[in-house]
């Protein structure tokens, strides 16, 4: 008979950026952590957990991970959606953390053990102009990365997704402030420019480095098909988020016209958001994040479905998923046969301090470490020094002033 959950608290902290962490405690004194950070909607996720989930958890058996998942998913009645699923994810992660700590094993062992020795990672390189972009890619390669996402500026535009004009290779999209920054966007200018940029990056790095690019939900199916075709000579590892994927059927047209590998799914929160993309083999990589799509338990269902269709797991890993769920993602990567690649955008030094972790990066690969559970702790004294500050991802308008997808 396992112990019961006696406390469920939400820790809001902002070491460089905002994070929502769930902390569960058992009567035996075991602590489990989960992540429910939803970039720009942190307080809603925190309230959902604190006001509507925490009271339900007190007295439950922490060993019953699947039952608790079903209770929160089915029991909400208003099921799915990013806030609900982030909250379910946080509970799921905290329960896997507790189970690992009770067993004295890292979570990847509970998931069946390692099926590989290390988890391939990719990171970001960006610069407004091509020479600086080439330097940024070289710098990431010198850091050990074998896979790099390249984003550049576009002549005639003031702002472009994935790059700051003067950032020196770094990029953090969420800006502190009470309202989002408004950026401007012109897809035609982007489409005229980006194939030549990626061709130049490929020529510069040679054939070995894996190159990725993110179109960030901005294209129509026809534009996406054209871009995929135009990028074929650059031999991309993937082209990401070509169209807004509420419309899964849109990918049929894209797929018919290009062999550039496609990755989609960072904003998805359940298997229903990607089941058609997977079963119709319209994508090559599914990008669902452990913090946003129902935790380890639901990600395993999605990845098991994906495996039937040779679609690979490639979880979202921007700085806005906390080091807690990032670690969980690496446990899943190590133990999932159809894992492809893990995004590793990196963290502010302060975030590494607030969330001391057993996971590590070396030579282009990640490892979750051997600490029991998820292997990520929270320094609550330090966390309390960085209170939540409003921050938002930008929004985008076309040159005629109409809203478009950021
Ligand atoms: O692929 C990525 O990491 C990006 O699309 C980020 O998720 C987005 O900029 C919000 O942080
Ligand atoms: Mg993306």
TrEMBL record:
The reply on keyword Flavoprotein is no
**Keywords from the UniProt entry:** Lyase
- Native organism is Kribbella aluminosa
> Record keywords: Lyase included?
yes
> What Gene3D superfamilies does the record point to?
Enolase-like C-terminal domain (3.20.20.120), Enolase-like, N-terminal domain (3.30.390.10)
The record, for InterPro entries, names: D-mannonate_dehydratase-like, DgoD-like, Enolase-like_C_sf, Enolase-like_N, Enolase_C-like, Mandel_Rmase/mucon_lact_enz_CS, Mandelate_racemase_C, Mandelate_racemase_N_dom
GO MF terms, alphabetically ordered: mannonate dehydratase activity
Q: Which domain of life is it from?
A: Bacteria
Q: Supply the EC number(s).
A: 4.2.1.8
* Record-given protein name: Mannonate dehydratase
Q: Pfam families from the xrefs?
A: MR_MLE_C, MR_MLE_N
Sequence ranges assigned to domain Mandelate racemase/muconate lactonizing enzyme C-terminal in this UniProt record: 130-261
